[in-house]
Amino acid sequence: MRNLLDKGVGAAMLAACAFAAFVSPQSASAQMFLAKPDFKPGPITGSDPLVGLPIPGATPAEYQAHLLWNLRSGLNVAALQCQFSPFLRAVDNYNGILAHHAVELAAAYKVLSGYFKRVNGAKGLKLFDDYSTMTYNGFSTLQAQYGFCQVATNIAKQALATPKGQLHVTAGARMRELRNSLVPAYERGPVYNPHMIRFTQPPAPPLRAECWNKKGRYLSKKCGAAV
């Protein structure tokens, strides 16, 4: 199978990676938990440290590209790690995103690589490659795989339904949740509910021999009521 970890891809490589046709976001929903964990969703900007590696001195446009590139990287890693369930459609959805949002992703690549050239000069491209590799590694998870795959799959479906040129909006709305899903989540234990308490089983009759006749019948007159 093709390696989907595409480091530092440009416009041409983005188009080449999109080897699957556009995928409709109407695939079956996959729920990994009986009770959905709270991954603390909420809006986020590209300058937030939670997004990814620091890019000091970045402009607003460069921070937006940084945010978008981290989302793409996370979904790329999910395409590799979440193939254990065919219902997730991890690979198909990711390739659909590359095709649907190719122009915006290519623009983000250009802006972000331009940042590294501007700040680091001749070493810029090498440092951009290092940044991309470390970004991929930052999304790799084993213990939190179920939570990460559930969130990434949901984001991928939303990204496919997002109009072209608006993927950065989805990134701003979902990146916090995607990062938080890298922390292991577990099923919640049973919750005490006083309204569901049942009456306990009544006590059994006494076992004293004198309370029973030879036919095995309990002598209530002699030993009292059984309950």
Question: What would your notes on this structure say?
Answer:
Helix content is 48%, strand content 0%. Mean pLDDT is 78; it is low at 1-29. The longest helix is centred in the first third of the chain and has 22 residues, at 60-81. It has helices spanning 11-17, 60-81, 90-100, 102-120, 124-139, 145-161, 167-180, 220-223. Helix 1 runs antiparallel to helix 4 (102-120) and helix 2 (60-81) packs across helix 4 (102-120). With 227 residues, the protein is mainly alpha-helical. It has two domains: 11-180, no CATH class; 201-227, no CATH class. Keywords: Signal. Residues 1-30 form the signal peptide.
Order of helices and strands: HHHHHHHH
Q: Distance between the terminal alpha carbons, to the nearest Å?
A: 70 Å
E-strand count: 0
Number of domains: 2
Low-confidence segments: 1-29
Shape: elongated
What is the makeup of the main sheet? none
Helix content: 40-55%
Mean of pLDDT:
78
Specify Rg, calculated over alpha carbons.
28 Å
- Structural class determined from secondary elements: mainly alpha
Keywords: Signal
Signal peptide: 1-30
